[in-house]
Amino acid sequence: MRALAGIRVVELARVLAGPWCGMTLADLGANVIKIEPPEGDDTRGWGPPFQGGLSAYFACCNRNKRSIALDLRDPATRPTLEALVQQADIVIENYRTGGAEKLGVGYEQLRALNPRLIYCSISGYGRDGPQADRPGYDFAIQAEAGLMALTGPVGGEPFRVGTPVADITAGNNAAMAVLAALFHRERTGEGQKIEISLFDSQLQLLANSASGTLFTGEDAKRLGNQHPNIVPYQVFAASDAHFVLAVASETLWRKLCVALDVSEWLVDPRFVNNAARVGNREELIVLLSARFASQPLAHWQEVFAKAQIPMAAINTVKQAIEHPVAERMHIEIEGVAMLASPLRLSATPPRYQLPPPKLDAHRAEILAELGLAP
User: Fold this and answer.
1) pTM of the full structure
2) What whole-number distance in Å separates Cα of residue 206 and Cα of residue 150?
């Protein structure tokens, strides 16, 4: 038994946020049918790299699903669509605002077929308001929702985060909202519409940076690899490599001073507590940087491990995937290597049964389940 065994999902979504939500539900045991246009999800062609015609991008968010290709503009596909919706618990869509309605798959149109339906709509900027018609792309959302202003070198060019965090966060938020809606329906019998936007999700992800601006009315500053509220909490350079140091409490600060044999800093008014260290950030960082530059990374790893002070080498993606902790995240389905779900449930763990599907690969069996002719 899986957590979502018996739950049926129709995925009318492409690229990342919607498919990420669908894959999360599929990993938890839901029966997810991915409806694609005849040309397939855009990400099928996003490469290289490819493996046997499968793009790595498509593979990252489409396992455990079955695929059927339907041209929703063709009236001949309507009986299949309606049969799928009538049996579905959840529909996920991420068309541009108004697009779903034009194709006959808007919320009101599908609710008429299935009143218990949970309909999850993902957009760039929300389904109402002055910018509802704008398409949403992760890069643009990172820029417009404040993330790029915080990311990159001080005084330099703003940077995007190296992975599509707005899309992924929206996909995770969508999955969480769907699970809440399922719980509500279990108690009341009522379906509902869910609206998730990339902009809202990214704005929420600003977390303490947004909170600081709300408290003070002052804009957040780009600090590169420094933390706005904690010192020292940033990247430092050893003599041969960079590393991250995270001294996030007074206890850790005391441990650091002992480990570095600078107990006088514990009573120095400039560094006596975190607020003082934030106010005197530049002076402290100069002192620490000079000390760390005197020894190689391996030395500091040994020192900080012994003192139980959080630090980390800065790994490449390959190094991270090969990290000993990452071993539990490695899965392979029919020769396709992927990273597993991070959700760990003792009684109902995620399942990994189907590789990312080939386009329209499951048409015959899906139609047979619906009692429709091929």
Assistant:
1) 0.92
2) 9
